């Protein structure tokens, strides 16, 4: 898909928190890091756990299942056991709305 889709309101995701959404058949998580909204695959590449249930420390997300860590800005794996990075998605803000390109 080459267009932006309205997914959420900025007010739905508190600073330092994440929320999971189902978009176009995908599970996507959106995080709010100091007012910057980042979107990425919502499922861990290791054991398929929901990443929105994990722990954020800045841009580092730790999966609650087995401790795999990802950089949510780039999607790269920072610590095993995740074998592959997660995809990240372009975010656009439109007034109070969060839009994603999936």
UniProtKB/TrEMBL annotation:
Pfam families: Rieske (PF00355). One of its GO terms (cellular component) is membrane. This is Rieske domain-containing protein. GO terms for molecular function: 2 iron, 2 sulfur cluster binding; metal ion binding. Belongs to the bacterial ring-hydroxylating dioxygenase ferredoxin component family. Residues 5-100 form the Rieske domain. Its cofactor is [2Fe-2S] cluster. Keywords: 2Fe-2S, Disulfide bond, Iron, Iron-sulfur, Metal-binding. It comes from Candidatus Gottesmanbacteria bacterium RIFCSPHIGHO2_01_FULL_40_15. The lineage of its organism: Bacteria, Candidatus Gottesmaniibacteriota.
